[in-house]
Amino acid sequence: METIFERVAALDVHKAQVTACVRVPKAAGGREEHLAEFPTTVRGLVALRHRQATTKRSCGRIT
Question: In 1-63, at which residue ranges do the beta strands (DSSP E only) sit?
Fold first, then answer.
């Protein structure tokens, strides 16, 4: 049996920036995609962690 996840996320990591993408269900059906870019400085990575921990668009589980 194939597992289907309702919420998924991905990180695209480069030397100068990290791009975070989260796909969540829309209230009216379909999918909604949220992108955000963060610099790879300590301040930028702390902001990424804070966003992922506090947003309603979170995936909930990281594996």
Answer: 8-13, 17-25, 31-39
